[in-house]
Specification:
single chain; alpha+beta; elongated
Length: about 375
């Protein structure tokens, strides 16, 4: 079964009203309490890793079903909802939108210290947070720039990642979900589920099983002398030709390029403006990789400095010169209780919302009494 999790929404420029956010926090708190009391913290974050369940939770809390803000506001509301109760609930939420996302490693380390987690477990959590962000920004080049990263974890070490990226050209956002307990490989189809009404014609997807050969050859390429690799890039660069505007390729990094080697077919790649062989920074990173000779593709990706351009350059050489297969299929595919923030499908019914909060409080209290010895 393919394991991927992506949701696509329109970019939302509005703000969540204070009165609604406060209710989202209150109702979210009661839902979390009830779920944890009934199922435990691991099952709760498992549900967060399900993009459909996450989407449904957002609409139950009255956010617009098709707005990018559902991801950012819902995550912020849940983080605020458990504030002060994290250790009792056994759930910890780190990161968030924009600059807050970059604080994720520090927040994980702070919780690790308070929980007295072994250093190796703390380091593993930080690594998983960072590598998931790299996978969705470098291996899955779908034209969406990651701007939201939230990391949910439990004392046992189970974790879920909810990330979101934006595409300025199409004015849409795409959400990516991960869940550790269903994860078999960090670089091969690591996501959980898929929900998306928007699919692009061509996406460079190096997480696909069909890209296994390209990942293997990319790793082999940096196990040799960097001089050999640079010669391959120079060969490709001599055959670069601008392509027509009708051939659209999803990328957030600039114009497209058509490569035509004598005796071969035409290949489309989301090349950057400058020639690969003339990029000094790329040469520096590739030289570093050739010196360090990473043993696996995941180690290659985790190397500091490796980003979308490095990954794309290696994939280009792997496919064009060595015939390694690369997937260009977009992995994306295609719920209201209280209304929606922008009155879609109808205005938020505040009295009903408040009654729901009170009902959930009673449900949570009853569940606690039921489970008490």
């Amino acid at each position: 079964m393919i394991q991927r999790g992506i949701a696509t929404f329109t970019l939302d420029e509005g703000r969540c009203p204070r009165w609604l956010f406060e209710r989202m926090v209150k109702l979210g708190r009661e839902i979390i309490r009830a779920l944890v009391a009934e199922l435990g913290p691991e099952r709760f974050i498992e549900r967060i890793g399900d993009p459909v369940w996450f989407q449904s939770l957002g609409t139950v809390l009255a956010f617009d079903w098709n707005a990018s803000g559902l991801t950012t506001i819902l995550t912020a509301a849940l983080k605020e909802a458990i504030r002060g109760e994290e250790q009792d609930l056994g759930i910890f939420i780190c990161g968030g939108k924009g600059k807050t996302s970059r604080k994720t490693p520090d927040e994980i380390n702070q919780w690790s210290e308070r929980l007295s987690l072994p250093p190796e477990k703390s380091q593993a959590l930080v690594y998983n947070s960072r590598i998931s962000a790299k996978v969705d920004s470098a291996l899955l080049q779908d034209g969406y720039q990651i701007y939201h990263h939230a990391f949910f974890f439990t004392k046992s070490g189970a974790w879920t990642v909810v990330q979101q990226g934006m595409n300025i050209e199409t004015e849409t956002a795409r959400r990516y979900h991960w869940y550790s307990e269903r994860l078999e490989d960090m670089v091969c189809e690591p996501h959980t589920g898929i929900v998306s009404p928007v699919k692009h014609a061509r996406v460079l997807d190096l997480t696909a099983r069909n890209s296994h050969q390209a990942r293997t050859v990319s790793t082999d390429l940096v196990s040799q002398s960097h001089g050999v690799l640079f010669k391959d890039l120079q060969l490709l660069s001599r055959h670069r030709t601008p392509i027509s505007a009708t051939a659209r390729f999803s990328t957030s990094e600039g114009p497209l390029t058509l490569l035509h080697l004598k005796g071969t077919e035409f290949y489309y790649h989301p090349m950057v403006r400058e020639n690969f062989s003339e990029s000094r920074y790329l040469q520096k990173i590739l030289t570093k990789l050739c010196d360090e000779k990473p043993k696996s593709y995941e180690t290659l990706l985790a190397t500091p400095g490796v980003g979308p351009k490095t990954i794309r350059a290696l994939a280009l050489v792997a496919e064009i010169i060595y015939g390694a297969r690369v997937s260009y299929e977009d992995p994306a595919r295609y719920s209201f209780a209280h209304g929606g923030k922008d009155a879609t499908p109808y205005p938020v019914d505040r009295p009903t919302y408040d009654r729901t909060i009170e009902i959930m409080k009673r449900v949570g209290a009853r569940a606690k009494r039921k489970l008490s010895p």
